[in-house]
Amino acid sequence: MSKGKLAVNILLTVVSIAFPLIWLFSPQMHTLSQILPYIMAILWGLKAMQTVRFQRFFAIFMACLLVFISVTRNLDTMYWYPVIISGVMLFFFGSSLFSAQSLIERLARLQTPELPPQAVRYTRKVTQVWCGFFVFNIAVTSHLIVQEQYQYWALYSGVISYILMGMLFVGEWGVRKIVMAKNNS
């Protein structure tokens, strides 16, 4: 990965994680909340120039959506940003369940090209767990938006969902080590 692509990915990740918290404090940071959609649109535009196929289409879509939000000043639409991201992740993970290799299996084969059948079944189950996480994330975030619980939305979208994601990642890593040890003995 080139340094420019890595920098765009890191900036986009940091801004995406930080923006719910910035949004929460927007009365004190009004100028920042006004320019935040422009910043995010530029980052998505840069990402579009660095990717191909569906990733490019999605990056262009996100850049256009953020420009639309910025121009129309419909900043309430920004609350739906985490839902859109989770929806796209659900699409990637979920659609891979209908292909020969799940997304997690493809990632696992980068490290271990020859996976045994039990590992293939395990990766499919992990992909299903991640789909469940994204459905849960969409449901919680959407509920908080519809109920206009914006402080809880900021806390969930900017902190709790990432903690849950990290716990799922670390938990899966631990379970995988146990499963691998069990299958190797």
TrEMBL record:
For this protein, the parts annotated as crossing the membrane are 7-25, 31-49, 56-73, 79-100, 129-146, 152-175
Supply the alphabetized keyword list.
Membrane, Transmembrane, Transmembrane helix
Q: What is this protein called?
A: DNA gyrase subunit B
